[in-house]
Design brief:
With about 425 residues, this protein is α+β, with helices and mostly antiparallel strands. It is about 35% helix and about 20% strand.
């Protein structure tokens, strides 16, 4: 191990208590989206950066969704440009019961607890620390390192990473490293993408005893929901070397995303996330609305899936469909340079080599891939992500920090 790499690890070990306290304080800084105001959490980041005189600026097309962007040049000559990306906003909190408060940032039982600990304040903290530690050895780095800590990710909103990619091409870089929850055993090189649709069924409606006078909007909706399952039978062929990578990764996919994940990773899936209809039990409903989350695997096209949706909905004259939101599946080389760097570092730190896989859920990394910039995700296990008692093990948090710091160093010194 080079002197610089060992120095980085020594600094991380010496700063252990500070790193944990920053992470816990970051969780305590509420940033649920919706509503999306990340001001308190951004202030937490700014205090850290300001205390170390690190270069950054705030880009806030919408003041409630500020983005922290920093960059510096290495002093060892020309080289590649690595972008670190993480988001600041988190899921909101519902009525679930928590062992520790959802905004407590409690440090207990070897874990940091609270909403957003896993998704993704652990990974965003790793990006911030990577930026800080490498700034201290910048004279030994080639190229450029950029930090993007963004808001407005949880709702696929327009004011976070999407705004930066569209209006600030200097953040594109040559590679992106992201710390979304992935499990330390995997590296995500691609992801499925959602199409969110709203389907509305309208009929005349009637008294519940007079079912002969009107069709039921809820019954029609139920039939239509059943027909939409046919989308899951549409075959999708993975492009290029993605298929071979996924075949080799079946065990890792299930380990990282739950048993059965490998069976659906390359399939279209359909989930009815919301449904509402009817006014009273003794009335034939004249209105029903439901929302559909369709996930497209790598290789699927929106045009093909939407053509199938329109054909199905077209068989029900009482129904109409509208798009709420949509993204495109994304992927990059499962055997790219950063994959090997991450694998080598994880093997040296933990004794195993993480497997490249595709993610079921979406991340901002897709935006770099769609701009033809390879983007890879390496983060903690998705433990209780979006649920009560969300947490990250402290040892795992520190492992993610070490891996990101060393991997960014290696990328910028080769």
């Amino acid at each position: 191990m080079t002197d610089t790499r060992q120095q980085l690890l020594d600094w991380i070990e010496a700063d252990r208590a500070m790193l944990i306290e920053f992470f816990a304080g970051f969780v305590r800084a509420k940033s649920p989206n919706p509503p999306g105001d990340t001001g308190e959490a951004v202030a937490h980041i700014r205090r850290f950066l300001d205390a170390r005189a690190l270069p950054y600026r705030i880009i806030d097309p919408e003041p409630r969704f500020p983005n922290v962007v920093g960059t510096f040049e290495g002093g060892a000559g020309a080289g590649r440009h690595l972008v670190l990306n993480g988001h600041i906003d988190v899921f909101p909190v519902g009525e679930e019961t928590w062992t520790h408060g959802p905004w407590s940032g409690a440090v207990a039982d070897g874990k940091v607890w609270g909403r957003g600990a896993c998704d993704m304040k652990c990974g965003t903290s790793a990006s911030i620390f990577t930026y800080a530690y490498l700034h201290r050895v910048r004279d030994r780095l080639k190229g450029r390192l950029t930090l993007t800590a963004v808001s407005d990710e949880e709702t696929f909103g327009p004011f976070g990473a999407r705004y930066l990619m569209e209006h600030h091409p200097e953040v594109h870089g040559d590679c992106c490293l992201n710390g979304e929850p992935s499990s330390p055993y995997t590296i995500r090189f691609g992801e499925k993408a959602p199409i969110w649709l709203a389907v509305t069924v309208t009929t005349r409606g009637s008294h519940g005893a007079y079912t002969h006078t009107s069709a039921s909007a809820t019954k029609i909706a139920a039939k239509l929901i059943g027909e939409l399952e046919a989308l899951t039978d549409i075959p999708v062929e993975a492009p290029h070397n993605v298929a071979s990578a996924l075949t080799a990764a079946r065990e890792a996919i299930d380990k990282a995303q739950g048993a059965g994940a490998a069976d659906i990773i390359q399939k279209v899936t359909v989930n009815i996330g919301r449904i509402e209809g009817g006014l009273k039990v003794n009335m034939v409903p004249g209105h029903c609305r439901f929302e559909v989350d369709i996930r497209l695997p790598v290789g699927a096209t929106k045009e093909r899936i939407m053509a199938a949706v329109r054909a199905i909905v077209g068989c029900f004259p009482e129904a109409k469909v509208e798009e709420i939101n949509s993204q495109l599946p994304s992927w990059c080389d499962p055997y790219g340079d950063m994959v090997g760097i991450l694998q080598d570092n994880v093997e040296a730190l933990r004794g195993f080599r993480p497997t490249p896989i595709v993610s079921l859920g979406g991340t901002d990394a897709r935006l770099w891939r769609l701009a033809n910039v390879p983007a890879y995700v390496y983060g903690p296990k998705p433990t209780n992500m979006g649920a009560a008692d969300e947490h990250v093990e402290i040892d795992e948090f520190l492992h993610v920090v070490r891996t990101h710091v060393l991997s960014a160093h290696d990328y910028l010194t080769r």
